[in-house]
Amino acid sequence: MESVGSFILYVIVSLAIIVFSVMAVTSRKILRAATYLLFTLFAAAVVYFMLDYQFLGAVQIAVYAGGILVLFVFAILLTSHPGNNSAVLGSKRRILGLIASLAMLFVSAAALLARASLFAAKPQMEEVNMQKIGEAMMGTGANQYLLPFEAVSILLLACIIGGIVVARKR
Amino acid sequence: MEISAIYFLVPSLIMFCCGLYGFITRRNMIAMLISLELMLNSVDMNFVIFNRFLFPGQMEGMMFTLFAIAIAAAETALAIAIIINVFRSVNHVDVRELNEMKF
Q1: Is A30–B41 a contact, with Cβ atoms under 8 angstroms apart?
Q2: Domain residues of chain A, as ranges?
Q3: CATH code for the domain defined by B5-90
Q4: With an 8 Å Cβ cutoff, are B22 and A14 in contact?
């Protein structure tokens, strides 16, 4: 049984996710689209907090909202004039996109709702604290993730070098 | 009022469909990248939701999302480097006009 407060929070967050993600893909000004993406990412972080994954919510805010969005804003300001609207879409393109996304929506929603009874209420979970996360990340045993952790660090190094090589001035 | 997994899965599904629509209709490469981030983020949310509701004692979904966020950051940085490079060569980032690989 959920409290009324958490249900109100849920309604606000899900409305924010829906409205801002629709606006992020329909806004004609690209800088505004990036801002709506920021709000959507914040709402996703609130979902992580509601599901008791505090560390994941913090990572979402720090990496997505703090890192990726800044990259997006820099790239937008470098490659377009901030006042310009994007061109009006051709109706053929828009209808194609609408058909694809609505078909996806209806098929998946039908599949989800047909199995809605399988999902019980939120089960109790012991708190995922920093110690458990750290041990899972740094161990080599079962359900521990040292190898992916190192692989990601090498990937980030490759990404730094690749970014410099691709974007450098010739 | 009981909030079950389906209540979280439906907004995530709508977010994915918005990303799909934007990826098909947008012309600006950065706007396409924004749509891609929406789709990626909804998949991340699904991992966490299934982890929390179906396997609350484990953390596979959470760990997968952590690594997916790191990889998304790397992917975005590289994609933006490529976009800036393309902009430097041809002075726009419209995908309809970009049909040659070598300038």
Answers
A1: no
A2: 1-83, 126-170
A3: 1.10.287.3510
A4: no
Total Cβ atoms within 10 A of residue B2: 10
The dihedral region occupied by B91, where left means phi > 0, alpha psi between -120 and 50, and beta the remainder, is left
Interface of B with A in 23-52 (CB under 8 A): 24-28, 30-31, 33-35, 37-38, 41, 44-45, 48-49, 52
Identity of residue A107: V
Q: pTM for this structure?
A: 0.90
A53 interfaces chain B, CB cutoff of 8 Å:
yes
Q: Does A143 touch chain B (CB under 8 A)?
A: yes
Q: What is the ipTM of this complex?
A: 0.92
- In whole angstroms, give the CA distance from residue B31 to residue B26: 6
Domain ranges of chain B: 5-90
DSSP string covering A9-72, please?
Answer: HHHHHHHHHHHHHHHHHH-SSHHHHHHHHHHHHHHHHHHHHHTT-HHHHHHIIIIIIIIIHHHH
The pLDDT tens digits for B48-88 are 999 998 888 888 899 999 999 999 999 999 999 989 888 88
Q: Domain spanning A1-83 has what CATH number?
A: 1.20.120.1200
